[in-house]
Design brief:
The complex is a heterodimer. Chain A is mainly alpha-helical. Chain A has three helices and no strands. The termini of chain A are far apart. Chain B starts with 15 loop residues before the first helix and ends in an 11-residue tail after the last helix. Classes of the chains: A mainly alpha, B mainly alpha. Chain B: Carrier of the growing fatty acid chain in fatty acid biosynthesis.
């Protein structure tokens, strides 16, 4: 039982680590959110058959994440505006000049 | 053959023997004297390239190192989310520039490619005064500037504790007011093992080293985490012993105590007459 618990926790950690490697913002956020929700949803599952199935599903997902993250690294696109570092535009309230047309 | 005077320029009206020093090849040409086939354009090109190389000698700008606290830095300033390089916050010498070479004043050397002078390519070049048509860069002296790659804050136990506490306070599921050094994750803060995994991951990101699962399951309070990090980073503090209790300072025994009691080490009595 303890071994199963350890295995699950390591699986969780691995999945989160691999999900962080996505270069696309959307995929990355989705993968992290989905793993967290997926593990939390079936936290109190007691049926051993269901548990086995869920673990197998998780392992398959881990493989998918690894593959897709690697592919994403090969073909990168531009970063989204929210990911880039920049100066926030001044709102008209802050700047004491009349707003430009 | 006797040198014939040049009809086009006035140079040859003087004696050619006095004009040119001995090292000059003794070829006196029959026409206006020019230095023997120098590709001035090529030399200019070479010096420009050399200047470029020297200007870029210092290498690239300070490397984008993961400083010790990238995750913390990115969390502290939410507008800078995604900032992986926190060395901006810690490096005072952010604009520490590339080293620029110091120049030696250029004497009358004819060979530009052996000279040690380096100048900015925007500096004008001037003709030398002796009329030979040599291109010599203007002299400029600059100084070396120290290049600082990274200056991280000093790692002490106190600092590590502060980092750990700050990281945990930024966690969504933890109430920052309830958090103390000794608050247990499972018992006091009501977190489960999945949250614990996330906490350990945050600590790993913070201090840039991996924590194996066997060790991770033992770390259940912030104090234990800080202690573990100190052990792994080999940071020792004299004021605290291994378990975090203030250290006892033992009185150091004076090895010469007995002799001092006996009255040794007294200056010799002044000689009586």
């Amino acid at each position: 039982m303890a071994a199963l618990r350890l295995h699950l926790l390591s699986l969780y950690k691995q999945m989160l680590r691999e999900s962080e490697k996505f270069s696309t913002y959307n995929f990355r956020m989705y993968a992290i959110r989905r793993t967290k929700d997926g593990f939390r949803e079936h936290r109190l599952e007691n049926d051993p058959k269901m548990q086995g199935e869920l673990i197998r599903k998780a392992e398959k997902s881990l493989e998918i994440i690894k593959r897709q993250a690697a592919i994403g690294q090969l073909f990168t696109t531009n970063k989204l505006i929210i990911e880039t570092l920049g100066v926030l535009p001044q709102s008209p309230q802050n700047s004491h000049s009349p707003p430009t047309a | 053959m006797r040198a014939q005077p040049c009809t086009q320029c006035s140079l040859h009206k003087q004696s050619p023997y006095k004009k040119f020093p001995r090292r000059q090849p003794k070829q006196f040409l029959f026409f206006h004297f020019t230095p023997p086939s120098r590709n001035v354009a090529l030399e200019f090109e070479l010096t420009t390239r050399k200047r470029e190389r020297l200007r870029n000698w210092g290498g690239t700008s300070p490397p984008q190192l993961e400083s010790h606290f990238p995750a913390m830095a990115s969390r502290i300033l939410p507008s800078l989310r995604g900032l992986r390089n926190a060395s901006q916050f810690f490096t005072p010498g952010k604009n520490a520039t590339r080293p620029t070479a110091s120049l030696y004043p250029m004497q009358n050397s004819r060979k530009l490619h052996t000279s040690q002078s380096v100048s900015n390519s925007t500096l004008p070049l001037c003709l030398n005064g002796n009329g030979r048509g040599l291109l010599m860069p203007l002299q400029k002296s600059v100084t070396w500037q120290a290049k600082r790659w990274m200056s991280a804050p000093a790692m002490t136990k106190k600092f590590i504790r502060q980092c750990v506490i700050l990281n945990l306070q930024l966690f969504d599921k933890i109430d920052p007011e309830k958090l103390t050094l000794d608050s247990h994750f499972h018992n006091d803060l009501g977190l489960d093992s999945l949250d614990h995994v996330e906490i350990i991951m945050a600590i790993e990101d913070e201090f840039c080293f991996e924590i194996p699962d066997m060790d991770a399951q033992r770390l259940l309070t912030p104090r234990q985490i800080a202690q573990y990090v100190c052990d792994k980073q080999e940071i020792y503090d004299e004021d605290e012993d291994h378990h975090g209790h203030p250290a006892e300072h033992h009185e150091v025994e004076d090895p010469w105590q007995k002799e001092k009691q006996r009255g040794a080490f007294q200056p010799p009595a002044p000689a009586h007459h």
